[in-house]
Specification:
601 residues; Glycosyltransferase; 2 domains; three-stranded antiparallel β-sheet; 14 helices; 28 strands; 22% strand; globular; binds the ligand OC[C@H]1O[C@H](O[C@H]2O[C@H](CO)[C@@H](O)[C@H](O)[C@H]2O)[C@H](O)[C@@H](O)[C@@H]1O
Length: 601
């Protein structure tokens, strides 16, 4: 049985990552990339689907974990009657994307502790047992394209297609265990020096964290929470290409036992754009330039063929299939690989993209001619499409509709294009864009606002609400004090809030094409914080923000959703969207606090 989602820690090297449970088991690891087949998939099945545990043999009295400050290096300390042991887990940053290491250093802090190790390597998402042979330093495992060198400083025993060990460690000693992946057609080229790799890895992440501007502001009440979210976002970036994954897992369920299980190990134009804004607002500029290049490569070709999501290197085909041999996280089946949303039309993506590139201009990122030509083409394409029904920001799998939020984001796309011409002197058919912007606005006000309900609604002709409407004031569609904005925020508070947290929409009767319900969606709850800030209800916003912070796990990590009744995290983990929400809300509250003290001071 897998641990609770929030009981996992996340370590990564910007090629891939691993999830480590509180009991010292690595239950998820895809090699060599985030979107490769998993060789440890116990997370979505059983131990037999692959895992690697190192833990005390006797009873564990207490466990505590932390990240080394400013890094993704995880330390888990186990207290036992015999003493205390810490496992230091990390993935060194590799200059060669075809060589990936996962290192676990066992350190005895006190006493003398008996330890056990259990390694079950199962390639192909938990199904393929490798051919294993002993080597001088441990063992080598090969399965088709994959080869793993496993180096251990203790005697190993093989039984039932698993490798085990039992050993003792005394105070002050350190024992390194290294799992190194390389393609089976290449010789092993790994550097064997766990201590040096730890120092290098720590120095790299610390340098990166030192660039963050959040800690420079003494008035910032949540610098650590924001810094951890930023680190998590950075670790979700695929270093060779600059693509940013929405989350590093597949099929962690949106409801325990349910079928709303999706593969998030890809780059959504939406999620990546929003991630980028959070990084830019926190002092990180070079990420924006890299991502712009990724985007230009991924989308290059005819603008009509632009997709809403791509693979890490811009791959277009992300065909969705099910993996029936995996029983699913706590029996939440099916487990899916690939994502059928790849073919959807989601008009909001144009707006999120234009907004991210606009903010890049505001931050005076070096202008790129290719990028502006691309933006002009996007608007040309959008001009022919904005009236079409789409699947919207929530990627519904029911009927396409005229989603109000999609239309608003089409308005945003033209608005940011116009501002590029007006404020930055770029060249474009601005009169035409102005006319379209006006036409879209009139259309939204005529059909997206429901006078009887006294609120904007999810889609034209409907009466239901949508948490994405909380974004209307932030994108500048109407001023925050407009009565329609205030009324919509209040309607969402009445109808979409459950136990203080926000649902995306009411799935009962929303015909999203899916069975069952889901938890409250964390980024939507952060959007409520932002909307409350904008309509001047700062105290309420801060209370909700503090509540959201309290839902993070002990390491500061958030999944996509939260079940307030069971008090546990749900959905893929850790999720970029949720951490983006946290960073932005913290910035918004701080800015509002400063401006209110400026006005009263
Ligand atoms: O609810 C159905 C859809 O759920 C997933 O989409 C969600 O995740 C995306 C990545 O973070 C996000 O961009 C989107 O707004 C969310 O609704 C899933 O990926 C879809 O396939 C599914 O239809």
């Amino acid at each position: 049985m897998s641990a609770k989602i929030e009981d996992y820690g996340f370590i990564g090297n910007m090629l891939s990552c691993a999830l480590v449970s509180r009991d010292g088991s690595i239950d998820w690891l895809c090699l060599p990339r985030f979107d490769s087949d998993a060789c440890f998939a116990a997370l979505l099945g059983t131990e037999e689907n692959g895992r690697w545990q190192i833990a005390p043999e006797g009873e564990i009295l207490k466990t505590h974990r932390r990240y080394r400050p400013g890094t993704t290096i995880l330390e888990t300390t186990f207290e036992t009657a015999e003493g205390a042991v810490t496992i230091i887990d990390f993935m060194p940053l590799s200059g060669d994307a075809q060589l990936v290491d996962l290192i676990r250093i066992v350190r005895c802090d006190r006493g003398r502790v008996r330890m056990k190790m259990d390694l079950a390597l199962r390639f192909g998402y938990g199904r393929r047992i490798p051919w294993v042979r002993k080597t001088d330093s441990g063992l080598q495992a090969v399965a088709g394209p994959d080869a793993v060198e496993f180096r251990a400083p203790v005697a190993l025993e093989g039984e039932d297609m698993r490798t085990g060990a039992s050993f003792e460690i005394g105070e002050g000693a350190e024992l390194p265990f290294v799992l190194s992946w390389h393609p089976s057609h290449r010789p092993d080229g790994h550097i064997w020096d766990p201590g040096a790799r730890l120092s290098e890895t720590e120095a790299w992440w610390r340098d990166w964290s030192a660039q963050c501007t959040v800690g420079e502001d003494d008035a910032h009440p949540w610098p650590d929470a924001v810094a951890r979210s930023l680190l998590t976002l950075k670790a979700l970036t695929f270093r060779p290409t600059g693509g940013i994954v929405a989350a590093p897992t597949t099929s962690l369920p949106e409801r325990i036992g349910g079928g709303r299980n999706w593969d998030y190990r890809y780059c959504w134009v939406r999620d990546a754009s929003l991630t980028l804004l959070a990084l830019l607002n926190s002092g990180y500029r070079s990420e924006a330039a890299e991502w712009r290049q990724w985007l230009l490569r991924a989308t290059s070709g005819h603008p009509r063929q632009m997709q809403i999501m791509y693979g890490l290197s811009g791959e277009q085909r992300l065909t969705e299939i099910e993996l029936p041999w995996l029983s699913g996280y706590e029996a939440s089946a099916p487990v899916r690989l690939g994502n059928a949303a790849q073919d959807q039309l989601q008009i909001d993506v144009y707006g999120e993209l234009m907004e991210a590139l606009h903010v890049g201009r505001c931050f005076m990122l070096e202008p790129s001619e290719a990028s502006w030509s691309f933006q002009r083409l996007l608007l040309e394409e959008l001009d022919t499409r904005w009236r079409d029904p789409d699947e919207g920001i929530w990627e519904v799998r029911g009927e396409a509709r005229h989603f109000t939020h999609s239309r608003v984001m089409a308005w945003v796309a033209f608005d940011r294009g116009i501002r590029a011409v007006e404020d930055y002197g770029l060249d474009g058919p601005v009169d035409r864009w102005r006319a379209t912007r006006e036409e879209i606005r009139d259309d939204i006000l005529a059909h997206g606002w429901n006078e009887e309900r006294g609120s904007f609604v999810q889609y034209y002709g409907g009466t239901g609400l949508d948490a994405a409407l909380l974004l209307l004031p932030a994108v500048g569609f109407l001023p925050p004090d407009d009565h329609r904005i205030v009324a919509t925020v209040e309607a969402i508070q009445r109808d979409l809030v459950e136990d203080g947290l926000v649902l995306r929409y009411r799935s009962e009767g929303a015909s999203d094409g899916l069975e069952g319900r889901e938890g409250t969606f964390l980024v939507c709850s952060f959007w409520l914080v932002d909307a409350l800030v904008m309509i001047g209800r700062l105290d309420e916003a801060e209370t909700l923000f503090e509540h959201l912070l309290s839902l993070r796990n002990d390491l500061g990590l958030l999944a996509e959703e939260y079940d307030p009744v069971a008090a546990r995290q749900l959905g893929n983990f850790p999720q970029a969207f949720s951490h983006v929400g946290l960073v932005n809300s913290a910035h918004n509250i701080l800015a509002a606090r400063k401006s209110s003290s400026h006005h009263t001071g």
